[in-house]
Design brief:
Helices cover 31% and strands 25% of the residues. The chain has two domains: 143 residues, Rossmann fold, CATH 3.40.50; 156 residues, Dihydrodipicolinate Reductase, domain 2. Strand 1, helix 1 and strand 2 form a beta-alpha-beta unit. With 349 residues, the chain is of the alpha/beta class. The protein has a nine-stranded mixed β-sheet. Strands 3-2-1-4-5-6 form a six-stranded parallel β-sheet, sandwiched between helices.
Length: 349
C-alpha cells in the first residue's frame, strides 16, 4: 500500500534545513518538497536549483496559505518561528519548526495554545541532538537507582577561546533576532529535562563582555545577549543544579555534565559523548558502554512524517517541552536583571 503523500513547503532554508531537513524529507517515500521561501528571492532560487524544488515564493505568507502543501518546515531564526507557526496552523498545515522554539516564553505559549486549537495538526520542534547517543542509557540508569537519590547536577559548556572583540554581530548576539535565547543554554536544558525533569527555581548572573559590535552594514550595535552565564537552580526532582555557559573562557577544560547521587555518580564528557559512572565503594569512575541498540540517532523528519501519517506521536520535541525550556531561558535573564530568584513555571501575562 502506498504511503499517504505529504507535500512540504520550506520557510527559511538555513544550514540545518539544507544539511538535515531537506535530505531527510527527500529520503522518505511519498514526501515531496514543493516550495521554498528564503530571506531573498535570489537565495530562494539558489536553494530551489540545488535541491530541485519546483516553486519559489517571495512572501512566506503566500507559501503558508498555498493549498498545494500539507506541512511547513520553518528554518528561520527564532524571531520568525511564532508568526509563521501561527499562520501555518490557521491555514491547516502541520508544523516542524527549528529550535529554539521562540523569542520568549510569551511567544512559546502562543504557539502551544494555537497547537491545542488544532489538535488534528502535528506540531514539532527540532530537538537538541547533543545527547541522543546517551539519553536512553542515562534514563535507564536513573530509573534503576544507579545514583540512589539525585543530589546535584553540574554542567559546564564553555568555549576554550579567548574574547573576540573584532568579529561582527552574529544573529545569535542580536536580541531582535534571537530573543532571550543565549549561547547553547536552552539546548542543554532541553537535554537535561529528558533525564531529570524541569527546574522549579532559577538564580543567575550574566555578563556581556563585548558591549558593541558592528552589524552587516558596519554600524555599531549594542549587544544585549550575554557571553557568560552562571546559573543556580532547583529541580522538581529535588536536585540542585549549577550550570555555566560561556563563549569567553580561554583554554577552558573539557565540557562535561556531572550527576551526583547518594549512591553513585555519572559523568558525561560532553566533547566526546563518553559516559562514565561509579558507585559507593568504587575507587574511580569507569566507562559505561552505550549498546548500539540504545544509542539514539537523528530521526526528526521521520518522526514528523510518521506523526502526520498516524504511526507515532511526537516525542522530540513537543511544544509543551519547548515552553518549558523557553520559560527557563527567560527566567535566567530575568534573574540576572533583577538579582532575584525566579520561580518556574513563569506566570502567564
Amino acid at each position: 500500500m502506498a504511503e499517504q503523500p505529504v507535500r512540504i513547503g520550506i520557510v527559511g532554508a538555513g544550514n540545518n534545513t539544507r544539511v538535515r531537513h531537506i535530505p531527510g524529507f527527500r529520503a522518505i517515500p511519498g514526501v515531496e518538497i514543493i516550495s521554498v521561501c528564503n530571506r531573498t528571492r535570489q537565495s530562494s532560487e539558489q536553494v530551489a536549483r540545488e535541491f530541485g524544488i519546483p516553486k519559489v515564493y517571495d512572501d512566506w505568507r503566500e507559501l503558508v496559505q498555498s493549498p498545494e502543501i500539507d506541512a511547513v518546515c520553518i528554518g528561520t531564526w527564532p524571531y520568525m518561528h511564532c508568526p509563521v507557526t501561527l499562520a501555518a496552523l490557521e491555514a491547516g498545515k502541520h508544523v516542524l519548526t527549528e529550535a529554539r522554539m521562540a523569542m520568549n516564553a510569551r511567544e512559546a505559549r502562543m504557539m502551544l495554545d494555537a497547537s491545542r486549537r488544532y489538535p488534528h495538526l502535528v506540531t514539532q520542534i527540532v530537538p537538541s541532538p547533543y545527547t541522543f547517543k546517551v539519553d536512553r542509557t542515562v534514563q535507564e540508569l536513573l530509573a534503576q537507582g544507579f545514583l540512589g537519590e539525585l543530589l546535584a547536577l553540574e554542567l559546564r559548556s564553555c568555549s576554550p577561546n579567548f574574547v573576540d572583540r573584532e568579529s561582527p554581530l552574529h544573529w545569535r548576539q542580536d536580541r531582535t533576532l534571537s530573543g532571550y535565547n543565549t549561547l547553547n543554554m536552552g539546548i542543554w536544558y532541553e537535554a537535561i529535562m529528558r533525564w531529570i525533569g524541569p527546574a522549579t527555581k532559577v538564580m543567575a548572573m550574566t555578563k556581556v563582555v563585548v558591549k558593541q559590535r558592528r552589524d552587516g552594514e558596519g554600524l555599531l550595535r549594542a549587544v544585549e545577549v550575554p557571553d557568560h552565564v552562571d546559573i543556580l537552580c532547583e529541580f522538581a526532582c529535588g536536585a540542585q543544579g549549577h550550570l555555566r555557559f560561556s563563549a569567553v573562557t580561554g583554554l577552558a577544560p573539557r565540557n562535561e555534565v556531572w550527576l551526583f547521587g547518594s549512591e553513585g555518580t555519572l559523568l558525561l564528557d560532553a566533547d566526546t559523548m563518553t559516559l562514565y559512572g561509579g558507585r559507593r565503594g568504587d575507587k574511580a569512575l569507569r566507562v559505561i558502554p552505550i549498546p548500539p541498540e540504545k544509542a539514539g540517532r537523528w530521526r526528526v523528519e521521520e518522526e514528523f512524517i510518521n506523526a502526520i501519517r498516524g504511526k507515532e506521536k511526537v516525542k522530540l520535541t513537543t511544544f509543551e517541552d519547548g515552553v518549558r525550556y523557553m520559560e527557563f531561558t527567560e527566567a535566567v535573564i530575568r534573574s540576572a536583571q533583577t538579582g532575584q530568584a525566579i520561580p518556574l513555571p513563569l506566570p502567564s501575562v
